[in-house]
Amino acid sequence: MSAPSLSQVPTRAAIGPRGTTPLTVGVLGTFPPTFCGLASFSKSLCDALSAAGSEVSVVRVADGVECGDARIVGELSGGSRESIAACVDRLNRFDVVIIHHDVGIYGGEDGEDLVEVMRAVTVPMIVVAHAVPRLPTPHQRAVFESVLTMADRVVVVSDSVGERLHAHYDLWRGRVATIAHGVTLTAAAGLKRGGRPTLLTWGLLRPGKGVERVIHAMGALRELRGQPRYLVTGRTHPRALADDGESYREARLDQVKRDGLVGAVTFEPDYLGRGSLAALIQSCAAVVLPYDATEQVTSGVLVQAVASGRPVVATAFPHAVDLLGSGAGIVVAHDDPEEMTTALRRILTDPRLSGEMAAEGRRLAPTMSWSVVAEKYLLLAHVLLREQRARM
Prior knowledge:
There is one protein chain. The chain is of the alpha/beta class. The protein has two domains: 195 residues, Rossmann fold; 170 residues, Glycogen Phosphorylase B (Rossmann fold). The chain is built from 15 helices and 13 strands. A seven-stranded parallel sheet has the order 3-2-1-4-5-6-7, sandwiched between helices. A six-stranded parallel sheet has the order 10-9-8-11-12-13, with helices on both faces. Helix 2 crosses helix 15 and helix 7 crosses helix 13. Keywords: Glycosyltransferase, Transferase.
């Protein structure tokens, strides 16, 4: 039996009428103003669920920062028994709960606080697996397996991640649902890309971002027609800033100077709003995700780049391998500088190839819109409620 894919999530007709009472959904995870991809994902999904008519409330993983969102009904503080009990009390008031899981999010040893919460929650639980550790310690494995076992369904963004859960954690495929990572679709302006072709990497900057790979490649690309440039935009990740200051950014700037690429590589440490970022993405020749990570199973940057209709070059992390497999970009080996350089050169010098990649991204975009994704979560929630009623 294969894992339910995005197209196999039951349709509204298959589950019957929903009734007139809005579904109440509790969400547990990080949430803005926390700066991380998971928090952004959580807010976007909550917004889409609310727009679809559900009553959404959030129990936010506490990080010492105040949040003014009216949907916040509580916080989970690491290591606090009182906080765990209050979290459980809140979550049990909803029809269904969506729990975001990632390494290092929850308190207790290896996130044991989440296990304590889930043991006491009595409503159906959907766990969104934002990471699937391939080589966990024995205790990490025990904690993650407990989370998987207690979940009524585990959501992943691609079928290959579901297969990884089955292969490495013996999770039955029938308890896995594949629902795409969502994206906010923006109307592509009729833009003529003049001037220097731009290769773009954006997002919070920290060790592991891998921009040194592209800087290295620029040494061989800067003399191409049009004199392409590489733009890295985004603030330093707050955790990296607290631990090491601007050491990673400074090291990369030193690399640029050392390689004589001052005119070809630019760092802009700015936060861009949605409109400004969308315009920047549309103006670039290609988006580059040169990440060190070999196990990354979700990437909002990747989804946004593809849905924006821009060619993508990415190292071979799982989400990139899956999403770019139909032709929206090129996947390269992590440890092959020549392959990275060749891929970037192909996109910069072959307009037909670049156009085909852009077209494939635009074809995929509607299937990843947050409205479509939210509908899939709600359909899954109704299936779980029906299963719960059948057990009573």
